[in-house]
Structures are given as structure tokens and as C-alpha cells.
Amino acid sequence: MGYDVEITRNPLFSRKPGPKITLDEWFNVIRRDPELKFFISADAADYGVDTALWIAHPNGKESDSALWCCDGQIVAKYPDEPLLRKMIILAARLDADVVGDNGEYYELDEEGTLISGEIETLPAFKEQQNLLRLGSILYGGGSTKCDVFLTRIQEASYDSTTRIVPTAFALKLNYYSWYLGFITAINEKRTKDGAPLIQVGNAAERRARDIDFLIAYSEKHPDHTFYHAVCALVHHYKNNPAS
């Protein structure tokens, strides 16, 4: 008994109906995620293994980080906000939804804020939802936390005197290139769909302004991923096309 939250594709509850999540799928997710590790119980020889621990949970308690596969769903009991956020990321990889015992959905809005409610009351964040429904897995700079981004760009210089470009500037360009790659991918899909393209430009002044925005967002939301900072920048230009 108690309050359970599930990662599910159950057609009765999920907006992404599909087959049950298999142990093979779940094990593949665990193996590919360095923040997850298998939990081997004392009864594993009799009952097998179906549980993972999220070892990056802020409080480090096993009881608050356990996720297990049961009847085609990934379950957590009384998950707190950090674990719910992790479940949303895992659900995207499994093309599934995060649903509570009372039928409420959990997801992140365009600014990375955790929201919940009945499907009719949740706002539509089309760009983000379309990406997540593809079961996308983040790679590169977009997968890092905003506080990591801030730490990296604060480094003063390379150790080697043969490097003439400061580390901070080089890393800013590296992360900004991830943003441009994200826009390129969106435009590629929009080209196929006949939708209007996102215009960015590459002027130094615009680039500096964009990087300042990404830094400001990261300072405000250090626990979000850099991907969420990029989504916020895209949303900013959508609402302020003349800026």
C-alpha cells in the first residue's frame, strides 16, 4: 500500500500507449545510465533482480532512490521531487509517461519546473514534448547540469602556455555550439514538415547576448540541465522575435 508513481505505457493511463516495459528494456536503461546501479537483494537468487538505485539522489538514501520493474511498469513509492525529475528523464527514454496513483501526470515545463495535474490541465509545451516523445536521450553539453556549465566556464586558462584561447571562452563556444546544433536539428525536422525555420544568425553580438542568457538561466536554475537552458532561450526568441 501507499502512494506509488509509475513510468508506464499502459493505454488506460498513458498518453503514449504501448506494450509493457520489459525487464530487458529496463536493464538496458540501467546499464546505459551511470547514475543508476542494480540493487541485488538477499533474495535475488530466489526472486531475481528488478530494482535499480539512483545513486545521484541528493540525500543519498537507498529508500528514497529505489525504482523497480513490476508488471511492465517502473515504480517508485512516495518519490520526492528529485526522484520524480529523474523518472521523467527515464520515461522519455522509454517513450512512456510518469503517472501517480490518482491518475495525475508529472512532467517538466519549458523552464524545467516540475508540474503535475490531469492531462486536461497540463499546458502544452510542443517543442519539448515532441522531443521527449521521440524517446530522445541527451548527449554532450545538453546533458550536463547548469551548475557544471557554470563551473567549467569559470576556469581561467589552459595549463599549457601553447594554448592561446582561454578555457572559459573556448567552453562557452563549445556549449553555444550545442545550442546551434539543437536549432539545426529542429530546423531539419521543420524543413521536412514545411514549418517555418528558426533564424539564429551568427553575429558576435548576438552570440554574446545568447551566452549571457544561458549563464543567467543557469545561475537561476543550477539543478536543471543545459538542455533546459537552451529550451528557455528558444522560448525567449519565440516570445520576443525582434530581440
Keywords, separated by commas or semicolons:
alpha+beta, 2 domains, 14% strand, single chain, eight-stranded antiparallel sheet
Describe this structure in words.
26% of the residues are buried. The protein is of the alpha+beta class and 243 residues long. It has an eight-stranded antiparallel β-sheet, with helices on one face. It has helices spanning 23-32, 44-47, 81-93, 126-133, 146-153, 167-193, 204-220, 226-239, and strands at 4-8, 36-39, 51-54, 66-70, 73-77, 97-100, 105-108, 114-117. Helix content is 42%, strand content 14%. The protein has eight helices and eight strands. Mean pLDDT is 79; it is low at 124-136 and 156-165.
Summarize the model shown.
The protein has 243 residues and is an alpha+beta fold.
Strands of the largest sheet, in order across it? 2-3-4-5-1-6-7-8
Question: Main beta sheet, described?
Answer: 8 strands, antiparallel
What Rg do the Cα atoms give? 20 Å
Unreliable parts? 124-136, 156-165
Distance between the termini: 53 Å
Mean pLDDT: 79
Shape: globular
What proportion of the residues form beta strands (DSSP E)?
5-15%
Indicate how many domains the architecture comprises: 2
Tally the helices: what do you get?
Answer: 8
SSE ordering: EHEHEEEHEEEHHHHH
Structural class by helix and strand composition: alpha+beta
Helix content: 40-55%
Number of strand segments:
8
